[in-house]
# Entry
Amino acid sequence: MNRELLGIDVGGSSVKLARVAVDTGQVLGRLQSVPTPVPSDPQRVLQVALEHPLAAATAGPVGLAFPAVVKDGRARTAANVDPSWVGFDAPAWFAERCGRSCAFLNDADAAGLAEMRFGAGRGVRGVVFVLTLGTGIGSAPFVDGHLLPNSELGHMAVAGLGEVEAEAYASARTRTALGLDWAAWVARLDRVLAEVQRLFWPDLFILGGAVSERFAEWGPLLRCPVEVRAAALGASAGAIGAAIAAHERYNP
Ligand code: BGC
# Structure
């Protein structure tokens, strides 16, 4: 059985690929990144992934993380991605193109799986919310290490903000777009965390996305009463989690 699997994490600006040792969560070699093709329709994006040297350097099932609801092997939404992904069956595409199985899942769910297995949530029981702060806000809730998939809390309404969704209010992209300093952005993030707390009463938040690498600068400004940790696996989390999902689905 193959224990070094290809994990692919599709994002709005880059497609990340990694060869992952699924027993340890280690990225073998380096995380690779290629620009997301424009337009970013499924065929173009997956062709780029398939032509990458890492695809030939790995065998067996592939994990594919994608920033949308993914149910029964198909993307169901497209909040910040090309709408042509809605309804796309990635496992069928991989089977037809290269005869490889594909575990297709939401990007935050993938990052969450990786963090819970090998990162900041390793060994943690109880209710844990992994949130990814990037272009959007991704969410992955866990109970005693078990994932509730496709939770989409980035699209949650936040009390007192009317129609504005959590991710439009407090994503990392919003921080950059509005030129918010850490304090102003953290105040927004605190409102989102407070809303999750009011509804789910988690024991721990794990915050990921590129901005988590600067957690030392803004983490201490949080007023959230729940324990908050920075994600530990950085930009590799989605690809690692995708490979874990492929392993669990196809290498029982
Ligand atoms: C999407 C989610 C995704 C998140 C992070 C949101 O806009 O709806 O599916 O997990 O962005 O990429």
Q: What stands out?
A: The domain at 122-232 is CATH 3.30.420.40 (Nucleotidyltransferase; domain 5). The first strand starts at residue 4 and ends at 10. The pocket of beta-D-glucopyranose is lined by residues 67-69, 77, 79-80, 106-108, 132, 134, 136, 138, 152, 154, 167 (CB under 6 Å).
